[in-house]
Amino acid sequence: MFSAELNKRRILIEKIIDKITSELPDLPPGKLRIQKNRNAPQYFHVTGKENAHGMYIRAENRELAVNLARKSYYEKLLRELHREHKAITSYLKETEGTHPEDVYSSMNVFRQMLVHPLLISDAEYAGYWEAAVYEKNPYYREECMLPTEKGDLVRSKSEARIADMYYSLGIPYRYEAPIRLKNGKTKYPDFTLLKLPERIEYYHEHMGILEDVSYRSANIIKLNEYAESGIFTGKNLILTFEADYAPLNIKELRKNVTEILLAK
Length: 264
Known about the structure:
The protein has 264 residues and is of the alpha+beta class. It folds into two domains: 2-94, no CATH class; 133-262, no CATH class. It contains eight helices and eleven strands. The strands form four sheets. The chain has a four-stranded mixed β-sheet. A three-stranded antiparallel β-sheet has the order 1-2-3. The chain is elongated, with a radius of gyration of 29 Å.
């Protein structure tokens, strides 16, 4: 996980280095000197030791000052980029083909049974996370009659479609798992989702009978309680809505959750 992030950083650094090295030759020779005059900056073009004070840059020639400042910035940035690129390359070379997470997964299964791992792979973490036992929403369990590909029983056709979508995308989920809010209440989001490799939990509430006034009111209250506990859209909450006149668009939802939960 760390190596992948470092490699992304290295690629970004290389792109910036290429940009700087292609633009530097076209920038003017010399350096920029700045001094204050009554709290206003004055710019001077220094071209050598024999002209340490520099030639005053007039306002109409401000582009020269801009380019000299850019040149100075590029040169300093280039030094730091090369330093960091060298360090990243060295680290990736030293750790190539080895990952601390592999230590546990490479052990004999019987030895694994005797050890509590301190560091595991994303796949192993997701497996433990999904296999965790939890008390599902106890209210109206008789309504959970529709099977999903994963083997859950859910309350509606739309929830079954959503569950099967997450399953096909390989996004780990729990159905109606409990969460404890700051106000002391326990709520059961339709789906609790795991985003890898950050190992962050997201929540998905599907509101499927918006024609019902009492249903809408109850969900507005619930969403406000979520927000008070740091669960809200734009951070870690996905909301979908459905009514007779506006069916669930599973294709659009699939595209959106892919960007939210699977984008690297």
